[in-house]
Design a protein that fits this description.
Length: 423
């Protein structure tokens, strides 16, 4: 796909539903008693993989133009699938479903595409085994993973890193465990699982960085409205900030405080971002308006990293157009995403003439110089593809992006939305 430098981006848009919440809505809806109606569901490949897995375990799930309807089978109602569960490219599906499968009375194998089979699963396998789960994985770390029937027991577990996927896998296993399950985080990570548990009637307490769950007898189905995904909105926040003359509004974006690090960092860089129309519910929502402004470098690290880990590639793009130096540190987790996002972004930004240096846990970007269009690779990674598309909008000269269809993992209509804004 060829992308030329853009004129001002102007308009009002919505972005697809939050990917993290969409996954959890299907999983917990499947385990609830009753009918769960999900509006705003993300119809991306990752979330459709989650639906496919639960359909294979006997859960009836309807998809129509406005909602997804999950006919829950109850906490103990899943049935043994006829074959392996395929999670596609979805790390969230793969890791979270292991927590659920650890407590089932049947044997099941889980695997995904080539990328998933390279992503480490040991950090999930370890604590689930401590709870009593029987799991076998390739090299004790990789998919395919086979889980066998076992008795689970609650425990207290301190996470080695702040990871919502690991935390959620343990808490989901805790639904089937005897006794309390307590997870201690080094710093808070996204808390969508805990919020949804409370809405479904699960007794779960958060005290600082300590989360304690009491296993329920059942989950009670509710209707779930999925807000717009701030990780998808981030591409337009960055684009609006760096493309001269731009002013655009993104409506109905989820602004859960464990996810708004990208707003904090862009504002620290000088971005003009305002909020309006706040709605407070199980997940807080508002409209975000961004206007072009002069950006400057900043330092990003420490407790804010779990709040923006998925947005760091597009933040790196914004930093390329900012005056001064931006340092990203404490982000080694980027190496085990859909691609090694540190190496990928450094390699591609160098093609664009950006002065960028890879470090052990992040990157150093010396911005403010001319950023050139180039031929970019996407590494089969949706967030790399969209980040480089944002760069292309403000670059000097045309760009080409290989395999643009990879954006369908989380944002099938991304390029159509860019067109509507004038990009």
């Amino acid at each position: 796909m060829q992308l030329k430098p853009s004129g001002p981006l102007r308009g009002c848009i919505t972005v697809p539903g939050d990917k993290s919440i969409s996954h959890r809505a299907v999983m917990l809806g499947a385990l609830a008693s009753g009918e769960t109606r999900i509006t705003g569901f993300l119809m991306g490949e990752d979330c459709l993989s989650t639906i496919d897995c639960f359909r294979k375990m006997g859960v009836e799930i309807e998809i129509n133009d406005t909602e997804v309807v999950v006919h829950g089978v109850g906490l103990h109602g899943l049935s043994e699938p006829e074959g392996p569960l395929y999670t596609g490219n979805s790390g969230t599906t793969t890791r979270l479903i292991c927590g659920i499968l650890a407590g089932q009375p049947f044997t099941v194998t889980v695997s995904g595409d080539a990328s998933i089979q390279k992503r480490p699963m040991g950090r999930v396998i370890g604590p689930l085994r401590e709870m009593g789960a029987r799991i076998h994985g390739r090299d004790d770390n990789f998919c395919p993973l086979t889980l066998y029937p076992s008795e689970l027991y609650g425990m207290e577990y301190t996470l080695p890193v702040a990871s919502a996927q690991l935390k959620s896998a343990i808490l989901l296993a805790g639904l089937y465990a005897e006794g309390q399950t307590t997870v201690i985080e080094p710093t808070p990570s996204r808390d969508h699982t805990e919020r949804m548990f409370r809405a479904l009637g699960v007794e779960i307490e958060t005290n600082g960085n300590v989360i304690t769950l009491d296993p329920p007898e059942d989950l009670h189905a509710i209707d779930i409205a999925v807000p717009g995904d701030i990780s998808s909105a981030a591409f337009f926040l960055a684009a609006g900030a760096i493309v001269p003359g731009s002013e655009l509004t993104i409506q109905g974006v989820g602004v859960n405080p464990t996810r708004t690090g990208v707003i904090d960092v862009l504002r620290a860089m000088g971005a003009d971002i305002t909020e309006s129309n706040h709605l407070d519910g199980a997940e807080p929502v508002c409209d975000l308006t961004v206007r072009h402004s002069a950006l400057h470098g900043t330092e990003i690290g420490g407790p804010i990293i779990p709040r923006l880990i998925d947005e760091l590639p597009v933040i790196a793009v914004a930093a390329a157009f900012a005056k001064g130096t931006t340092v990203i540190r404490d982000a080694a987790e980027l190496k085990v995403k859909e691609s090694n996002r540190i190496a990928a972004m450094v390699t591609e930004l160098v093609k664009a003439g950006v002065d960028i240096e890879e470090t052990a846990d992040g990157m150093i970007i010396r911005g403010g110089k001319t950023v050139r269009g180039a031929d970019f690779a996407t590494y089969g990674d949706h967030r790399i593809a969209m980040s480089l598309a944002v760069l292309a909008l403000a670059a000097d000269g045309a760009s080409r992006i290989a395999d643009p269809e990879v954006v369908s993992i989380s944002y099938p209509g991304f390029f159509d939305t860019l067109d509507r804004l004038g990009g």
